[in-house]
């Protein structure tokens, strides 16, 4: 699995210093605590090979001295970029609604929306 992930990152960021480049691995980002927003929501898909990187980002923010609030939403049964590839599904539509509310500061991390298969 790690070899597949490394291959993805090398193709996406050919000038990176490797798998633990601060651009790719939040645990190595010395500026993470300086993130310029007050809240972050991290969406991950249960069957995404990069799922743990999304959760790692959430955990790194929580461990950093960043003063904001971070939450994650995991969509059960979903795959990488399901919301783009399968944009007409209920989960994709609910995720988009949820994200719009988040951006408009109306969501307050109250996950009462559909996303019936989501873990929050």
From TrEMBL:
InterPro entries: AB_hydrolase_3, AB_hydrolase_fold, Carboxylest/Gibb_receptor. SUPFAM superfamilies: alpha/beta-Hydrolases. It holds the Pfam family Abhydrolase_3. Residues 8-82 form the Alpha/beta hydrolase fold-3 domain. Coiled coil: none annotated. Belongs to the 'GDXG' lipolytic enzyme family. PANTHER family: ARYLACETAMIDE DEACETYLASE, CARBOXYLESTERASE 12-RELATED. This is Carboxylesterase 5. It comes from Salvia divinorum (Maria pastora).
């Amino acid at each position: 699995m790690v070899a597949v992930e490394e291959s993805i990152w090398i193709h996406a960021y050919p000038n990176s210093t490797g798998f633990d480049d601060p651009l790719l691995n939040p645990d190595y980002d010395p500026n993470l605590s300086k993130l310029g927003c007050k809240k972050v929501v991290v969406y991950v898909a249960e069957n995404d090979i990069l799922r743990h990187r999304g959760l790692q980002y959430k955990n790194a923010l929580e461990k950093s001295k960043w003063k904001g609030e971070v939450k994650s939403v995991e969509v059960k049964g979903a795959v990488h970029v399901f919301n783009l590839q399968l944009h007409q599904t209920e989960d994709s539509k609910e995720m988009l609604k949820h994200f719009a509310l988040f951006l408009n500061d109306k969501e307050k991390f109250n996950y009462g929306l559909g996303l019936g298969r989501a873990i929050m």
